Structures are given as C-alpha cells and as structure tokens.
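Bit of a strange request maybe. I'm writing a small parser for structure token strings and I need a real example to test against, not something I typed by hand. Could someone generate the tokens for this chain?
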Amino acid sequence: MVDRADGDRAPVPTPRVSVVMATYNWAPVLPYSIASVLDQEFTDFELLVVGDACTDESGEVVAASDDARVRWYNLAANHGHQWAPNNEGVRQARGDIVAYLGHDDLWLPGHLTSLVAAIDAGAGVAHDPLLMVNTGEPLQVWPPTVWRYRPGAWIPPTSVAHRRELIDTAGGWHSPDESDGRDPETDLWARMAALAEVRLGARLTAIKLPAATRHGVYRQRPHHEQRYWLELIRDAPDPEGEVRGRADTPYRHASARASTWTSIWDRARWSVRARWRRRRGRPAVTSVERHRLRRRFKGLDG
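Reply from user aminoacidic:
Good idea to test on real output. This should exercise your parser:
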C-alpha cells in the first residue's frame, strides 16, 4: 500500500514504524532530535512531528529536514501537555508500531532496531534503558539494573515503542485530569500493560534531557546540550559504549538552575501541603498540580 506524502513529495511506502514527536515552541532543539531519528539503522519509519499549537518557527525547521518520511502537523489549540499531540500523532500514524521521542531528547542509532526486535519477539510494549541527564546530578542509566515493570511505574516515553492496536484498545492518551492521579504516560503504560507484555531490553539506546530539571528552558530555548550529545553519538565508533561509559560521572553542560520544582519557597510550601494531605489519607500532590508546577518551572507559565 502507498500513501501520498504532504505537498508535492513523491509517494512514500507505508512504514513499519510511526515515530511521534510532540513539540511546543522550542524549535532550536528540533534539528538534533530529528537528526537522531534520521540516523537510525532501522530506516522503515515515518516521523510525525506534532505541534501543540506552536507559534514559533517549528514548522519551518521540520520542513528543512527535506526528508519525505518527516511530516509536520500543528494543533489548532494548545493543550499544555504532550497527551494531545501524541494522540494526533497516533491518529495520523500509518505504521503498525508506534514509538515516541521527546523533542529535546535523542536516540542512538540502534534504538528502533532494538525495540522492533522486541515487539517482533512477542512484546506488546518495549523499552530500552537510556541515559538520564539531570542537571546538577551525575549521569545515570535508567532504569536500575534490577528493575521490573509494575503498573503505576513511570517509563520515559522517549524509550518506548508499542503495537499500534494496543493504544486503540486501551483508549489513547488521557489528559492529566483524566489520568487517575498519575502522569499521562504512566497511566497509558498501565492500561496497555493490562493487555500485553511490557518488556525491557538490555541495550542503552537513548538520551533523556528532562526539561523538568532545567529552569526556564522554554523561555531561553537552549540547544547546546542536544548539539553536544548528537556530536558525541555521531563521532563515537561505538555510540552505545561511549554513552554508557559516561554513567555515574559528573555532568557539566547544564545551562540552568536544577530542581524538580519551581523554587525553594514553592518546594517548602508544597512539602507542608503534602504532609497535611497525607495525614488525611489524600494524595500528596495530584497529577494536575504536579503538571502545573512543572510547567511553571520550565517557563511555560508565569
């Protein structure tokens, strides 16, 4: 089967994998994340970059990739979270496997090869270890060596691929206020895990640079970390060994103050509130409140 790509591009064969990348007004990082997809050893994919009502130059940056496998969509309204762009990406996806990549994260060349092999071997959801690059902390491989998925556990979407029919059956991505107190990705993995096996691979195939530990990044829009890691991956004879060898070492490339929350005052205030709630048998912080705090810290609100 052949579908026609956007614009005047030639027909593109239906791909095996649909890569979904949600983005919002951080165009300078997109050339690096897109490049890490185009550098994949496994080439039977399409890349769907979906803006959450972007108003910057993101569309032009995506178009500059000049690859028929890369397509751009931009939602008419902003939803403030990747759940909505991800749902649109899944709706547009033509592959029978869906993989996700954060717009500020990077894949190593073997990422899709590894996850497709796991799904072909029987997994419904597959993920590989990644290097977690938190500011102000040593570099860490996630998850830990001894780890097994249990419903409610968090897995970074950047490391995940799943069978397309699973998400249709599970009901798609839910917004933070529909996720039963969980982050939307944690909620989705749990619903899909009730339908099929979640399998962790052995290869380290991605680098995650969490915006939630980078104060004000959506205002500053830096991209030097993505450039640094992409160059390291491309220059290394053994990218996986090179990246894994960085684990447990200090990280000196952070551009902003590191914290999971917004400020010392906010952290203290929420700590008191969390203790008050726990004494009354209530969740310390709801998913909606956690989402709001993270947005403020990253420079999306206020």
